[in-house]
C-alpha cells in the first residue's frame, strides 16, 4: 500500500514537471513568433526603402541624362548632378525611419497644441520647436525637415531655398506676385536716304524690335 501511494506521488510530481515544461515551451514559442513577426516587419520596411531608393536613383539619372541629351548640358555638370542625386537619395532613405517616427510624434503634438484655431492659410514653418512665420516669404539657409501627410519633407538640403507666398491676380491665375519694374525704353536708330529705302528696311526693323523684346523677357 505504501509503495502504491509513493508511486502516485511520483506520478503527480512528474505531471507537475511536465506541465511546467509545456508552459515554458509555450512561452518560448510565443516569443519566437513575436521575433519572427518583428523580422518580417523589418524586412518589409527594408524592401520598401530599397524600392524608394531605386526609384529616386532612377529618376535622378533620367533627369540628369535628359539634360545632357535634350538641353545640351555639360557632361561635368551632369555627372555632378548624378552624384548629388545619389547622395541625396541615399541620405533620405537612410534617415526615413527616424524622420517618419519624429515627424509623426511632432505632428501629433502640434495638432494637439494648435487645434484651438491657429491658422496657417498664409504659410508657416517650424524650426527647433518654434513657429517661424513666412506669410510674406522667407529663405531657408540650412537643411530643415517639416511634417507632411504620410511622411516628412526636407528643404534647404542642397542650398538656400526661398518660400514665396502665392496670390491670385485679376485674371484668376494663382502664382507668385511681383512688383512691376517700370517701363522699358527701347531706342532704335534708323537711317535711310529716302522713303523707299525705309520701306525696304521694315523687315529689319521688325526683327530688331523682336530681338529687343526677347532680351527683355530673358532679363525679366
TrEMBL record:
Domain of life: Bacteria
Protein name: Phage tail protein
Taxonomic lineage of the native organism: Bacteria, Pseudomonadati, Pseudomonadota, Alphaproteobacteria, Rhodobacterales
Amino acid at each position: 500500500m505504501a509503495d502504491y501511494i509513493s508511486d502516485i506521488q511520483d506520478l503527480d510530481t512528474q505531471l507537475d514537471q511536465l506541465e511546467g515544461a509545456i508552459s515554458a515551451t509555450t512561452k518560448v514559442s510565443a516569443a519566437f513568433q513575436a521575433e519572427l513577426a518583428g523580422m518580417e516587419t523589418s524586412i518589409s520596411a527594408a524592401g520598401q526603402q530599397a524600392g524608394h531608393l531605386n526609384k529616386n536613383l532612377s529618376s535622378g539619372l533620367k533627369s540628369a541624362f535628359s539634360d545632357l541629351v535634350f538641353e545640351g548640358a555639360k557632361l561635368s555638370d551632369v555627372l555632378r548632378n548624378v552624384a548629388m542625386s545619389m547622395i541625396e537619395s541615399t541620405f533620405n532613405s537612410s534617415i526615413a525611419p527616424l524622420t517618419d517616427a519624429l515627424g509623426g510624434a511632432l505632428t501629433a503634438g502640434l495638432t494637439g497644441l494648435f487645434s484651438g484655431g491657429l491658422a496657417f492659410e498664409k504659410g508657416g514653418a517650424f524650426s527647433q520647436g518654434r513657429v517661424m512665420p513666412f506669410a510674406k516669404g522667407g529663405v531657408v539657409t540650412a537643411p530643415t525637415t517639416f511634417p507632411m501627410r504620410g511622411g516628412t519633407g526636407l528643404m534647404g538640403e542642397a542650398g538656400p531655398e526661398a518660400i514665396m507666398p502665392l496670390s491670385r491676380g485679376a485674371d484668376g491665375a494663382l502664382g507668385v506676385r511681383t512688383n512691376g519694374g517700370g517701363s522699358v525704353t527701347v531706342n532704335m536708330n534708323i537711317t535711310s536716304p529716302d522713303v523707299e529705302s525705309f520701306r525696304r528696311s521694315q523687315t529689319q526693323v521688325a526683327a530688331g524690335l523682336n530681338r529687343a523684346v526677347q532680351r527683355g523677357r530673358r532679363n525679366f
